[in-house]
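Practice problem 4.
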């Protein structure tokens, strides 16, 4: 294992007489030339052995040196000589005078000289040896000495076998040295020399402050300096340690981290039953009720701390925690070995400083129980993004059911004839209006002109123009959103399409009538009517009608659910070049729905769909096509992943009022570390999407206002946004409102409203709302205790895999407080989250993220539509 030896002491003026015989050895030993005498390979002499024994007695920390390791492994005269020399040299500050020590460091055998001696310091600062000797010997404060030693093979491999490399290293570490020694940087004086010792090249470093009251080094300071040097020297090796670039080390790392991840997952999702923890939690709760002052670990009395420690150590007996802690200690020890010869032995979990946050979580649990607070254990703060088909598409039911209205100009053989009064003609004026609606390379987008031309066409009986006028009112293109006016135009459009169809039935008109019924535009939504019209058009091989009918068959809307028929219809539509049908076929092949799983076919269909969407978008400039292309580019579906290109398509679509594109843009601009973060744009687009009624955007924006992240905290605004989304039957908004009203932390407590919203979410099969309701009725707090209701909701939640609901079901007849029953489980999940944080800090990036920062990052993540924590739900109190 590559590592450094790092020693830190300070110079003393009085020599130690009883060690003077050891100094004589340093002064008289052979030095300048590398030893090649074969006699030195013989066993160490009795004199050397006696000298080594004395050194180990007088200077016990020399047992940690590389040279001592070599001597123990192979006790030859050469190794004995190397150890004796380096042991004494590393301790000359202890047995000699300051002036002599500086001279020895600068001029000892095998020092690499820079001019007349070997000392170097900050760049541009000359080193005059007599002057440095006088400064050091006359300094009234502490003068600290450091030895940094490497094995020869490591020094040669990493390029630290010359003065220049050490000079650059120490100059780069200057401020860390000052910080570690508690010295104001401008007051720091340091000098070093590189000694090209045969087995273990090293440097001696002398450092002090011009202010004698400074330069105080603690154990933590030494470890900080040692760690910083080791990370810099072995940065390439550390990458190898973290990533295990060799096969055997990689396998070990993967196995270790897989085990750790599995154990963490078990802790985060499992149940822990511990009577000892429950009893101590109750005892701690009682004690805290009688304790004044701050209720945090650092401020409570020693006997109360003992209860907290006992709970933590009792948790550590859980098999999952014990294994996880062992694995964590092993991985941590491997990194520590880089700069510590022997990592510290594992200590009880309650004494491990890196896990001290669990102690305050124990206290929080006890306070919750004592204060009769209701807890929402599986606090999954997410939205529909978690349940969408491919993890990136945020499509409405209408978009899934039928392709977009905007199609390329219809071929002459399919274009309906012009009829007196009503028509569906792609006239020149209608095409010109669409050009202004979408914009083109030669024409700037102009909603006002588009509206004027569409109106003229509508007055001339054009059903297509009427439909587009409805769309402009519905999406607020160039005007305020006006759904009433939009529906009026859609109704006029439907009447006109029906008149055209009555006079001369055509598949295209039948398809457009079916779309209006399917989406509920200008008429009540009626999937049966939609299916009837799509059937007529599909019978004439209309590819978009085939596609739309397939969607209804897939979801069982207006027709019996039939995946096989849906797959067949999609195939027929795709065979005619319908990119939308290819996209749906890809998903069915990917998921094995209506056909066998076939990833090769799925990839082929996705690519066909992407290429087809590109061609369609180039002709139509339709916002829904632009949104789809942005989706596929962002996720790398059917094409190479390209976020920058995705943003371009999303922006074009968003400008046309596409709320899904607006929300997608907001998520990208909120993402940290992706290279596209722009909070101002994110808030603007998310606001537009929320104002347009997108429930996902409303939820995401509500979370920002609730947390005060990027915006001023405004709980009332958050409740307003959650309510708007909840009124659209968004189960996640309903659950969020239920939690808010029940906890009463950010808004006044309102049990009736909380129950109403939790029930609404539960009836939509939200397992977390079902669990919360079941627990409420079981506890009988704020609501009458109702075992039958509790069992009903807990059963529904447990059937979806909710381990907490299952836990309570198995103890449904217990009259103990469920909060106490679940105390050990909640603490187990807390520990899982802490282990996860700690594992991430050892994951190959030395930029460690503390919990507060991680919480902020997770809050941002949740605002982008992801689960608050993708790998595990968090808890709240």
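Answer key:
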């Amino acid at each position: 294992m590559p590592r450094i030896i790092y020693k830190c002491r300070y110079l003393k003026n009085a020599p130690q007489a009883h060690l003077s015989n050891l100094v004589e050895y340093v002064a008289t030993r052979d030095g300048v030339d590398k030893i090649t005498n074969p006699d030195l390979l013989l066993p160490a002499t009795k004199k050397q052995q006696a000298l080594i024994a004395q050194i180990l007695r007088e200077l016990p920390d020399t047992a940690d040196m590389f040279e001592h390791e070599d001597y123990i492994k192979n006790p030859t005269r050469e190794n004995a000589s190397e150890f004796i020399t380096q042991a004494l040299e590393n301790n000359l500050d202890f047995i000699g005078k300051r002036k002599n020590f500086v001279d020895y460091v600068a001029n000892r055998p095998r020092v690499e000289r820079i001019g007349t001696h070997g000392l170097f310091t900050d760049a541009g600062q000359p080193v005059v040896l007599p002057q440095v000797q006088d400064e050091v010997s006359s300094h009234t404060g502490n003068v600290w000495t450091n030895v940094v030693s490497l094995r020869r093979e490591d020094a040669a491999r990493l390029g630290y076998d010359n003065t220049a490399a050490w000079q650059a290293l120490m100059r780069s570490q200057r401020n860390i040295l000052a910080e570690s020694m508690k010295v104001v940087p401008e007051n720091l004086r340091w000098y070093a020399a590189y000694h090209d010792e045969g087995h273990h090249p090293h440097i001696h470093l002398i450092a002090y402050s011009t202010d004698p009251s400074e330069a105080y080094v603690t154990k933590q300071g030494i470890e900080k300096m040692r760690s910083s040097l080791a990370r810099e020297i072995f940065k390439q090796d550390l990458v190898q340690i973290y990533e295990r670039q060799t096969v055997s080390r990689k396998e070990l790392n993967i196995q270790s981290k897989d085990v750790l991840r599995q154990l963490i997952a078990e802790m985060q999702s499992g149940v822990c039953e511990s009577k000892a923890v429950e009893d101590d939690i109750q005892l701690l709760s009682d004690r805290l009720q009688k304790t004044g002052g701050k209720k945090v670990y650092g401020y409570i009395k020693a006997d109360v701390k003992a209860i907290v420690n006992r709970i933590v150590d009792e948790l550590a007996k859980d098999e999952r925690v014990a294994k996880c802690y062992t694995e964590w200690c092993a991985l941590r020890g491997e990194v520590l070995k880089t700069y510590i010869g022997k990592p510290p032995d594992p200590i009880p979990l309650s004494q491990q400083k890196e896990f001290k946050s669990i102690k305050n979580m124990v206290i929080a649990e006890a306070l919750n129980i004592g204060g009769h607070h209701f807890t929402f254990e599986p606090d999954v703060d997410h939205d529909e993004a978690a349940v969408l088909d491919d993890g990136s598409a945020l499509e409405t039911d209408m978009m899934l059911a039928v392709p977009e209205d905007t199609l390329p100009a219809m071929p002459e053989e399919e274009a309906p004839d012009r009829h007196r009064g009503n028509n569906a003609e792609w006239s020149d004026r209608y095409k010109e209006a669409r050009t202004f609606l979408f914009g083109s390379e030669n024409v700037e987008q102009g909603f006002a002109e588009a509206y004027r031309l569409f109106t003229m066409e509508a007055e001339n009986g054009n059903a297509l123009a009427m439909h587009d006028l409805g769309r402009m009112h519905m999406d607020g293109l160039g005007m305020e959103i006006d759904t009433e006016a939009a529906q009026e135009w859609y109704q006029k459009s439907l009447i006109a399409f029906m008149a055209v169809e009555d006079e001369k039935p055509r598949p295209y008109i039948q398809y457009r009538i079916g779309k209006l019924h399917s989406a509920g535009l200008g008429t009540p939504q009626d999937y049966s009517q939609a299916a009837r019209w799509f059937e007529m058009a599909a019978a004439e091989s209309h590819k978009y009608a085939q596609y739309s009918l397939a969607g209804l068959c897939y979801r069982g809307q207006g027709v019996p659910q039939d995946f096989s028929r849906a797959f067949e219809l999609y195939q027929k539509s795709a065979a005619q070049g319908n990119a939308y049908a290819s996209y749906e076929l890809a998903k069915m092949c990917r998921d094995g729905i209506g056909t066998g799983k076939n990833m090769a076919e799925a990839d082929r269909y996705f690519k066909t769909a992407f290429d087809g969407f590109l061609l369609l978008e180039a002709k139509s400039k339709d916002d829904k096509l632009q949104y789809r292309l942005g989706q596929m580019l962002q996720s790398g579906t059917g094409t190479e992943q390209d976020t920058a290109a995705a943003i371009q398509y999303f922006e074009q679509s968003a400008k046309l009022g596409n709320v899904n594109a607006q929300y997608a843009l907001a998520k990208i601009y909120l993402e940290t570390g992706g290279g596209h973060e722009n909070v101002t744009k994110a808030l603007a687009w998310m606001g537009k999407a929320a104002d347009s009624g997108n429930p996902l955007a409303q939820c995401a924006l509500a979370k920002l206002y609730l947390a005060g992240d990027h915006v001023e905290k405004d709980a009332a605004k958050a409740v307003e946004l959650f309510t708007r989304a909840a009124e659209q039957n968004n189960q996640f908004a309903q659950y969020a409102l239920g939690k808010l009203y029940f906890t009463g932390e950010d808004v006044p407590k309102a049990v009736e409203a909380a129950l109403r919203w939790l029930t609404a979410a539960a009836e939509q099969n939200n397992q977390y709302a079902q669990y919360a309701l079941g627990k409420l009725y079981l506890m009988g707090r704020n609501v009458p205790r109702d075992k039958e209701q509790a069992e009903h909701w807990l059963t529904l939640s447990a059937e979806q895999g909710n381990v907490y609901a299952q836990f309570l079901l198995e103890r449904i007849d217990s009259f103990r407080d469920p909060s106490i029953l679940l105390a050990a489980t909640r603490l187990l999940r807390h520990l899982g989250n802490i282990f996860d944080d700690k594992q991430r800090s050892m994951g190959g990036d030395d930029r460690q993220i503390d919990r507060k920062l991680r919480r902020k990052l997770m809050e941002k993540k949740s605002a982008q539509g992801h689960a608050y924590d993708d790998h595990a739900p968090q808890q709240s109190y």
